[in-house]
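CORE FACILITY INTAKE
Project code: CF-77B
Contact: R.S. (postdoc)
Sample description: multi-component assembly, two entities in total
Requested service: structural model of the whole complex
Turnaround: standard
Below are the sequence entries exactly as provided by the requester. Do not edit them.
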Amino acid sequence: MQSLQEKASAWSGVDAADAFAIDETNLFQKLGLQTFINLSTHFYTRVYDDEEEWFRSIFANSKKEEAIQNQYEFFVQRMGGPPLYSQRRGHPALIGRHRPFPVTHQAAERWLHHMEKALESTPDIDADSKVKMMNFFRHTAYFLVAGDELKNKKQEPSCKCKHGGCKSAAP
Amino acid sequence: MQSLQEKASAWSGVDAADAFAIDETNLFQKLGLQTFINLSTHFYTRVYDDEEEWFRSIFANSKKEEAIQNQYEFFVQRMGGPPLYSQRRGHPALIGRHRPFPVTHQAAERWLHHMEKALESTPDIDADSKVKMMNFFRHTAYFLVAGDELKNKKQEPSCKCKHGGCKSAAP
């Protein structure tokens, strides 16, 4: 059985070594807090205005300002900065926290499309950092697609049948 | 609705600030790789020999050596060292990866009991680091209990009834 990491690499086309090349330099020290805030603001401004309603609707129950803060605090923490995210919200728990959302291949590609455009709109991020970050994002997006599949596996039956559970032959 | 972080703090009795005090000093630099290997070896030696079968059986499908490596690589990565865990296995995704296991309050307490004993068996960890680590472990254990509850929420019915789904009135 393929691991989450193997699926993420196979589906994204990004090796783990390239995905985690973000750890070779301290991107937070290089780019600074404001750059991460700008990136996430550009990203979610696109997402909340997305002409593709199926994608925009995934975020309908979240406030844009909170989505921005959650994202840049996670990026800051993961890319060498202070653990802003965990201090406020606990472990990133990426798969667990994406559980309510349909993280499909299609949704991953739409997310990555907006992130690529957001990176282009953030001139303070140099070309080398952009490549590293995009590899990390691409690999992570498909890691979450792989995580999303866990929802459909090994579920306890949640059947509400009056005859008491559908493991046995149905009436 | 309480957040994962709020539940973790309420149930563990450890504030987020105390749980993430592990980030105030670089514990990896202070303690070194071998100390983390020793800690996880002591921990899993206890777990795999646990006289309480219900707890020991949770780990029955995992190899002890792999469990040790997974754990110390995560600790090293989270406590200031190189990202050994992510390079090999991807994001920690603590809730997602604990999904197959019954992370109950009782299991959390048994895990913490063994970890407290494992810390006592690892003399290279100074008293201040022990307190910080135990607060982190206690808060994290209950964060995962809170994460475990997500499994029982908002599930799609996985009913196998021949009459085609049990959302409607049962026959």
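Facility notes:
- The CA atoms of residues 55 and 110 of chain B lie 7 Å apart.
- The mean pLDDT of chain B is 91.
Invoice: internal transfer
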